[in-house]
Amino acid sequence: MDIHPLHRWDVTPAEAVALQRALAVRTVTDTPLKSWRVVAGCDVSHDRFSTTLYAGVVVLRADDFS
């Protein structure tokens, strides 16, 4: 599988916000999935007054929702 980079990773916070806005419009939300076996979601958050990051990932199987 060839995965082509969508962007640089060494960006400033302002560039990251602009990049998120540019990528958000590419998200397809009006076409239902015909079938799926596994879906995943993730998020990372931070406290701007701390060096701690909080991250979570959820993976769900369609056959038994586990």
Question: What is the helix/strand order?
Answer: HEE
The residue fraction in helices comes out at 10-25%
Query: Can you give the mean pLDDT?
Result: 90
Distance between the termini: 27 Å
Q: Kindly name the structural category.
A: alpha+beta
Strand order of the largest sheet: 1-2
The radius of gyration is 16 Å
Measured by DSSP, the beta-strand proportion falls in: 25-35%
What is the subunit organization of this protein? Answer: single chain
What's the total count of β strands? 2
Question: Helical region count?
Answer: 1
Structure, explained:
The chain has a domain at 34-66. A hairpin with a 6-residue loop joins strand 1 (38-46) and strand 2. It is of the alpha+beta class. The chain contains one helix and two strands. It has one helix at residues 13-24; strands at 38-46, 53-61.
Strand and helix map with partners:
Elements: H1 13-24, E1 38-46, E2 53-61
Antiparallel strand pairs: 1-2
What would a concise description of this structure say?
The protein has a domain of 33 residues.
What structural keywords apply?
alpha+beta, two-stranded antiparallel ribbon, 2 strands
